[in-house]
Write a structure and sequence with these properties.
This protein is of the alpha+beta class and 303 residues long. It is built from 5 helices and 21 strands. Strands 12, 13, 15 and 18 form a 4-stranded antiparallel beta sheet that branches. A 3-stranded antiparallel beta sheet has the order 3-2-5, with no helix packed on it.
Amino acid sequence: MKFKTVREGEQAVLFNYLGEGTLIKGPKRVFIFRDRLVMLERKTASQYEYLELKDNVGNVTHVPGPCEMFLNPLELTSLKVKEAIKIDSHCVIVVYRNNGDQVIRRIVEGPTVFIPAANEWIHKFEWHGQDKNESDHMVRAARTITQLPMMPGHFSDKINEVRTLDDTKMVVKLMVYYELVDVLKMLEETADPIADMMNAMCADVIQFAGRLTFQEFVAGSNKLNDTETFPQLLQICEKIGYRLNKVVYRGYTVSIKLQAMHDKNIENRTNMRLQHEVQAMQQKTKDFRLSKQQNRVEETKIH
């Protein structure tokens, strides 16, 4: 037999020898005889948090902060503090609500602090993203997001096994600038818009290079900076709710042997052009001297 104190702001459950419990709210002095007093854990949520309650029946409830509650085992099996979703400016999230007979989808725009209801969940997107070990390489499911940026973005990628008309194999590097303009169309048409854009861009580059020899490709590679060179990429962007802002050509790579031959050809062409310019200048100098000599002869004859 003893007394225990439940302080102000605290709560406890008093269990008797039969296992029956009674909620005690402080401040209170409690006499203990063949009983057990269990102090309850207190949880608090700020204005940027919420409490997730799960009762003994299995129902889940979300209580927005600021608030406080005690984990009362007579009513609850769990009580958790969770972060609210801070949606940035120019970003949106896709929220699904289960109404029993149907699931409703809605778009929540930022900037705002969003607290989901117990029957709501947030769409998680898993897209292609930059490889951590290789910046010019995109890998599957490397980018996981819940907030969709409604502002311009970009990605870099390299297209392997590109062959020209004369069967020269090379790697072409590009950077694509895009912007999401229609969220609903994107949700309906694609699960990975980055992968769709990559595939369309690859098809356009292969088609472009396949009509040209290697020398013609090098001479006309500046056309890869024009969006008109990418009809399939433009078409897929329109289909999935994106706008293609621009494409930047970042160069190409070939085998070391072929690159050495290409560099040698450039060097030879440069030397030939310089020799031609020197010979042309020498010829002009000779012509000038001959014309002056002829003028002097004619002047001598006149005098």
